[in-house]
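Continued from yesterday's entry.
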Amino acid sequence: MDFENFRRILVLYVGGTIGMKKNCYDVLEAAHNDFRAKIKSSSSLHDSKWARENLHGKLKENQMILPQSGNGQKILYEIIEYTPLLDSSNMTLKDWIRIAKDIEFYYHNYNGFIVLHGTDTLAYTASALSFMLNGLQKTVIVTGSQIPIFESRSDANNNFFGSLYICGSFTIPEVCVFFSNKLFRGNRVAKVCTEDLYAFDSPNYPALAHVGVGIKVHEYFIRKIDYAEKFSVYTDLNPHVAVIEFFPTITAEMLSAFLTIPKLQGVVIQSFGTGNIPSKLDLLEVLGAAVARCILIVNITISAKGAVSMSYATGKVLQDIGVISGEDLTVEAALAKLCYVLGLPGLTFEERKEAMRTDLRGEMTIQKYEEIK
């Protein structure tokens, strides 16, 4: 049988709870080389009978066939397991780059890509990949689970199957996150719960697709393919960025100590409400001095939903000293975007500020404000 008639998906198994097992101390840890065997034994994830009768041994060890989809499309997927498998809490910028380079290397051989990832920093990885993958014309889905696939009660099968089905049946040219029957834009998600299976949400942007009895893809909310832009991967991310959350007892000395960290070039500040900080002159002087040293500072709200606004004088004053409004960016997207923008070559400080104000990958909603008198 000709594999060209199949939709081909590459699965990068990076690590995370989805493939963990409990050790002798009853603690979850990575189970190397066991995930693929578990998938092959699952009738909902691999059609071994059909493969045996129709492919006659042509499948490689790491290739599986998704059971027949409703649209009649056959989906063949391959799993590449990372060594070592990574707990997502240990993920770094270098790991984002590795994933992006793997997608680049295999880009022309597959119709779509799935990244199996731990949930703790999944939103950071999805955000980073959205900026690194330029001119994307294929579907990339990042997913994982709250309960390992080896447990009798788990969300792993549903999340993995749903990701494979969507990736193999539709072309959604974005980095996405699929979890608990919803497909989100990757740079819009945040982990909202550690206990429920509904672990992720997109507080400021609608879901791209819903999975129920059928699959409802919301085309209106999906970014359109720019066929004139060639696919490329940008990996020169700048690691000298940080996040600070404002709190009522913060002092100018505390803020100054943070903003004078050696090599610091970009900062995300999480402010109160619609972008407000304590209206203390010494705090503003510290922030203004940092901007004068060409530290790129982006202001986002600490609130789970909503955006920075110039509705209050305490927020407007930040704009006046050169702090950039992050609009409705999540903290994950703001950090990843700073890494990307600060890594772009040949830009002036003002050009980098303008790039941070610009919606590059659908990560923010640009709002217009009337000038506060």
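--- second protein ---
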Amino acid sequence: MNTTVGSYALLGSLAPRDAGVVEKLRRAGAIIIGKSSVSEWYSLRSFSIPDGWSARAGQGLNPYVYSAKTCGSSSGSSIAVAANMVAVSLGTETDGSIICPADYNSVVGLKPTVGLTSRAGVIPISPRMDTVGPITRTVSDAVYVLDAIVGYDKRDREATKRGNKFIPEGGYKQFLNKDGLQGKRLGIVRNPLLFNNNINTTIPAFEKHLNTLKQKGAILVDDDLKIANIDIILNPFESGESVAMLAEFKLSINVYLKDLISSPVRSLADIIAFNINNAELEHIGEYGYGQEILEAAEVTNGIGKEEKEKIEMMEKLSKDGLEKLMKMNELDTIVTIGSNASRVFAIGGYPGITVPAGYDVDGMPFGICFGGLKGTEAKLIEIAFGFEQATMVRKKPTLPPPSSYTTTTCTFHDKK
């Protein structure tokens, strides 16, 4: 099947092999149904393109509120699971691309520690931040998928070698403990992370859920906790994330394209040229959107002095921010509503998991998010599963198919 990140530029490209995580899924007995839509180029084409849109697939729809946002970039993976098209899916995350669409589409999204799962065969953005994880309707499904895809991969050698040391003997299923909240120290991070689509609905729901967590044995550390320099962390232009990511994307996408058996494009420059030459097909310029982010990445020239300084800055922000907060308060996780902490997890390579937590007055879903330091998936699973089992908030979508939706019925005749 074509891997295109929603772009016609890669239509017809031929990869030499399955992605590492797909190989593991097949060995575990999974049936691969297909590939989902995605925000084109992982939302790295233009700031004006809405989440969930791509030239190849059009606009993905939130199955709960068709006019609402889907978030991205793994929007199709979340929509397909939420709408019961598939049992489970995979998403890729650099910054929020699993946690955010799972939050917006009322499903479970588990973003693993960078290196816990292989990125081999996945169209890259940043080897420093990219990770692959499950999107499912339940925490237990996410854990079963996680167990199938974690582990060392010689084609993603350095990252998976580092991540392999975190995998517990016996896998992660053993941490599906309904009493997993007992004795866990949960840091409640409120400002400026307590923001979602409808604050009048989400904040009361969040407070109710905190009471449930406490009743189930969790220890809530709620003394005006602050992540140091959080305003800088949440701004990719101030944290250095945008500078480093653009350079990393150009380097890594060029390597990926050259490894393909065949492809209409072999470099980022080729992609930009394809879009210009196929403006109507790709909705470029007068036909729709721009490609200013791709163009900004193209003018970078590797990991130079500025990029190295920005990477070091993000490492310091992570060390002085989330790591210091968790160690000083002996926390097992931080807790917030929605997906607003995803950037905190992204720049440090940390794991996070979001679980359905409710619906606002317009029917728009929102989740509760748990995150921790590298390799703490076992604790996060216990906490997330304990919360899910105590609340069971998720409900399936009930909207009729949108008016633009059509079906085709195929009849198969037995020749006998």
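The domain at 8-391 is CATH 3.90.1300.10 (Amidase signature (AS) enzymes). Residues 406-416 have pLDDT under 50 and may be disordered. Will compare against the first tomorrow.
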